[in-house]
Every structure is written in C-alpha cells, then in structure tokens.
Design brief:
This protein is α+β, with helices and mostly antiparallel strands and about 170 residues long. The protein has five helices and eight strands; from the N terminus they run ββαββααααββββ. It has a domain of about 100 residues: Jelly Rolls (Sandwich).
Length: about 170
C-alpha cells in the first residue's frame, strides 16, 4: 500500500466567493504518487471553504465566475443570505469577538478593531452544506471521473483575501 500526501496553496479574492479549479493539481498528485489503483481525497482544513465536484461550465460572468458557480451562489443565497450586519446571524457572538481580540494576531482578523471583519457566518454555513472534502477513484494511474467533471476548491469568505491550503492524499497500490 502506498500513500502520497501533498498540500497546495490557493489565493482567495476576498470580495466574492472564490472558486478555484484544482483538477490539474489533483491529477499531478496522482501522477507523482505512482498509485495505479486506489483513491484520492481532497480536503480543506478551513471552516469557510469547501471542495466539490462539478461540470466545467465554460461560460463566465464579468468577474470570472462560471455559470454553474454563479447558480450555486444564487441558490445558496436564497437559504443563507450574505452576512451584511451584526443582526444577520447570531454568529459571531460577544464571547467569540473577545476570544479573537485576545489572539496575538488579532489585527489580522479584526483590522483596527473592526468587528465587522468577522461577519462571515454565511461562509461557515455554506461551507458546511457543501462539505470540506471529496474522494475519487484512481484507476490505472488516472483520476476516475468523466471528461467534463472538474474538482473545485471554494472560499465562501468574502471578508478579505488570504492564502488557503488544501490537502491531496492518494492511497492505493
């Protein structure tokens, strides 16, 4: 049994949900793993990010968001509106603000003490619904998906841009 693990870094935009096609990186990890048959798992460690499998839609809006991704944004907003005020969600509560304010890097999360920088309750809920991981077959050294299927990493947090990480693990023989 072989196991190969790799972490990739991704940059989110911050102003809109950021969708990143990571299919090439997953295929490369499979190639580097030398696993002929097994599974590959893609995992986000971030609570406002998700991993999902979807058809590549070709069409994009003026912000570079594919049509299926924009449809996903529209559908999710119907059940989880954007976090635009302290009254939109219960989260974050006063105890959470106080905990973040005590962190040594608090200014990174609360620039100039601005508590609205933590208004990302929608991102947490959207990521929870979509899920933080996906697992795929590896068949004869290839990603076992159809030709139109792509793997996407999405950061739903629109409070600021940042560097995100994603783990790719290949297991098999």
């Amino acid at each position: 049994m072989k196991m190969f693990k790799e972490k990739i870094e991704l940059k989110s935009k911050g102003s809109i949900p950021t969708y990143i096609d990571i299919t090439k990186e997953v295929r490369k990890a499979i190639e580097d793993s030398e696993v002929e048959n097994g599974i590959v798992t893609v995992v986000s460690p971030h609570t406002t990010c998700a991993v999902f499998y979807e058809e590549y839609a070709h069409d994009e809006n003026e912000e570079g968001v594919e049509s299926l991704q924009q449809d996903l944004n529209n559908a999710l907003e119907k059940i989880i509106p954007y976090h635009t005020s302290a009254d939109t969600f219960i989260y974050p509560g006063d105890e959470h603000y106080q905990a973040v304010e005590s962190w040594p890097n608090a200014d990174e999360y609360l620039p100039n003490g601005d508590r609205s920088a933590l208004w990302n309750g929608d991102a947490h809920l959207k990521a929870t619904i979509i899920g933080s991981s996906e697992t795929f077959d590896v068949e004869k050294w290839n990603l076992g998906v159809g030709s139109t299927g792509y793997i996407y990493f999405v950061d739903f947090d629109t409070t600021r841009s940042r560097t995100r990480k994603c783990s790719i693990t290949v297991i098999g023989e």
